[in-house]
Design a protein that fits this description.
135 residues; alpha+beta; two-stranded antiparallel ribbon; 15% strand; binds zinc ion; membrane
């Protein structure tokens, strides 16, 4: 019985796009909008916006235009790169006690230096520009 459901689901999803980072974000945003609206405005229009986000995410998941959906996701990943790289820097700096991680102000390459050497001049390994940071 369960196999049958699994199989038909598999057949239903064959050739469809499925989920990606942008869809995860859309669902997360929809839930966030719904919760905030529930606690503050309680506006039916804001709820409609949340519904629209869920619909959009569902549409993208079931879409057969895989190429176009991939392009949207790539665009989304490009747009959010500064935010994501900032988060990954914070994560690395919190978990690594021996090194400190900086982002090159010119090319945004992540640069790792040993901790505890005071103010140092860092040379970016990618673009060779230098910047000063406290290690
Ligand atoms: Zn650089």
């Amino acid at each position: 019985m369960l196999d049958k459901i699994k199989n038909s689901l598999y057949r239903f999803m064959a050739g469809r796009y499925g989920t990606d980072s942008l869809n995860n974000f859309l669902l997360f945003a929809a839930i966030a909008v719904m919760l905030i609206n529930m606690l503050t405005l309680r506006s039916p229009f804001v709820n409609l916006l949340a519904d629209a986000l869920i619909f959009l995410s569902l549409f993208r998941t079931l879409s057969r235009n895989i190429w176009k959906r991939q392009k949207e996701n790539i665009k989304y990943m490009e747009l959010t790169r500064p935010v994501r790289s900032r988060f990954s820097l914070i994560k690395k700096n919190a978990s690594d006690k021996e090194h400190k991680y900086f982002s090159c102000p010119h090319c945004h390459q992540t640069v790792r230096v040993p901790r505890g050497h005071g103010k140092i001049e860092i040379t970016c390994p990618r673009c060779k520009s230098t910047f000063e940071r406290k290690s």
